[in-house]
């Protein structure tokens, strides 16, 4: 019983710093901290009524996301927003909708730069084992067009399999690191009418180009797929901004 209570206390200590870090991040984003100086460990402890351990863990979380830096003399300063870790699911969860929308557009720009070339690379060197996995992904997507959540996971794995087939470990890790934003992006594009049926058709076209081991065709098919996604993201962004203006 004592061990169980200790485990419960440990969970509380971990979750409370996350809650405080989320609150402080939103305060920073809103511009409430104007001089660039973030609350210190003592400030956090006093304002939120938490222990120094919780306050210290809060600052560690913010520092791990590159939001703050603990300078000499334990002065805590806010880092430039351009340097924050936007690939972290925690930070994405804490940011306002309009900022996340901008990040999804930037993610799409990255995908346009990388994924057509990854598809071309995969077409040139793909193995039979990778082709089997891609085929299984296509078959599964066709079965899941009425289940957006399940489809999303198979969709992500299909694109990662193309990345693995390209046989470049650095590009693989870049794509993997962006998976949280990629999930958020796919949730938006999957909402459109008949989006999943169209996505399956796009994925099939990409797959067939890779099967044919035709890099140019694979590159073009991936570009077409991403262009379709771009249109869906742009339409969603327009809807979000219109709704924001009506509030």
Automatic annotation (TrEMBL):
Protein name: GntR family transcriptional regulator
InterPro entries: GntR_C (IPR011711), TF_FadR/GntR_C (IPR008920), Tscrpt_reg_HTH_GntR (IPR000524), WH-like_DNA-bd_sf (IPR036388), WH_DNA-bd_sf (IPR036390)
SMART domains: FCD, HTH_GNTR
PANTHER family, per the entry: TRANSCRIPTIONAL REGULATOR, GNTR FAMILY, UXU OPERON TRANSCRIPTIONAL REGULATOR
Domain HTH gntR-type: 14-81
Protein's gene: pdhR
Keywords: DNA-binding, Transcription, Transcription regulation
